[in-house]
Design goal:
about 300 residues; mainly alpha; 14 helices; globular
């Protein structure tokens, strides 16, 4: 009788056990921490691999810096023929450019590797990640971590610094807080777009260029003022894929400019909320895509 009671108790969780509810409450958090830890370990491995060839790392980082710098050089060349673009000066556009480039650079550094997911789905190498006791997203995001992408971040920070030094901004505590908030929230929004695009590749398999249209293409759009674009495009990057919250709306608050589409002033403070919502949707899309995956050839 006693043995039967022990066996029955082994198959259920005793509600009187003070640790039972705690295990359920922190299961999700433990999974997240496990993923972050695994991501850090994989990134550290790739960084050690990269730094084993320091000269190559320096050259590729400088090359990445120079290649991305040509974007802003192009804008500067435009201003040798005009005084303003869409009513914005070179220094104001530099603020838009620097904020979006830095935010995208951070996201590309941390999560840019997920764009190669379609290739893993096609050749079946994703299966090797599924059998490991580590969250798949952490493995995919950290795979082939490219430290050379620091060149893009450095270039964006330099342009942002140039804008802040040359602009005559009436600084307030809220505007000071808005700068790091804009960059970090913008990086989170871009990161969510990266993950959502990777989730789409579970179904499309060869859709990395579609994803790039919203990531690389999105940051290019944000480097210019909204006043030069059609209202349909501005609505799309505000209400459909909310990239406007990366730099346009918070940067216009810092500059004291009117918002596009007649939006109210408080929307400039929504980037963290928008980033959280984007990540919730991207997480749902990722889980849906991962569940639908049936290995190569099926």
């Amino acid at each position: 009788m006693a043995e039967a009671e022990v066996e029955a108790g082994a198959g259920r969780r005793d509600v009187a056990d003070p640790g039972a509810w705690r295990e359920d409450a922190f299961a999700g958090r433990s999974r997240l921490l496990e993923g972050v830890r695994a991501y850090g370990l994989i990134v550290a491995m790739w960084m050690r691999s990269t730094m084993a060839y320091r000269a190559s790392f320096v050259m590729t980082t400088v090359g990445n810096f120079v290649a991305t710098a040509f974007d802003f050089v192009t804008i500067m060349l435009m201003f040798t023929h005009v005084d303003a673009l869409g009513g914005y000066t070179l220094h104001e556009i530099a603020l838009l450019y620097g904020a979006s480039a830095t935010a995208f650079g951070l996201s590309d550094l941390l999560l840019g590797s997920v764009e190669r997911l379609g290739r893993r789905v096609r050749d079946g190498t994703l299966d090797t990640l599924l059998v490991r006791p580590v969250p798949v997203l952490a493995q995919v995001a950290a795979d082939r971590f490219a430290l050379r992408r620091l060149g893009r971040i450095t270039q964006g920070l330099l342009v942002l610094g140039y804008a802040l030094v040359t602009l005559d901004i009436a600084w307030t505590p809220l505007k000071v807080v808005m700068l790091p908030l804009m960059v970090l929230s913008g990086a989170a929004v871009f990161g969510a777009v990266f993950v959502a695009g990777a989730a789409f590749q579970f179904f499309a398999q060869d859709a990395s260029e579609v994803q790039n249209a919203f990531t690389y293409g999105g940051t290019t759009v944000l480097q210019y003022p909204p006043s030069i674009f059609a209202k349909e495009l501005v609505r799309g990057v505000t209400f459909v894929v909310p990239l406007a919250f990366v730099s346009w709306l918070p940067a216009l608050y810092v500059l004291g400019r009117d918002y596009p589409l007649g939006l109210p002033g408080w929307v400039a403070f929504l980037p963290p909320v928008v980033a959280a919502l984007c990540w919730a949707l991207a997480s749902l899309a990722w889980r849906t895509g991962l569940r639908a995956y049936r290995s190569t050839g099926s």
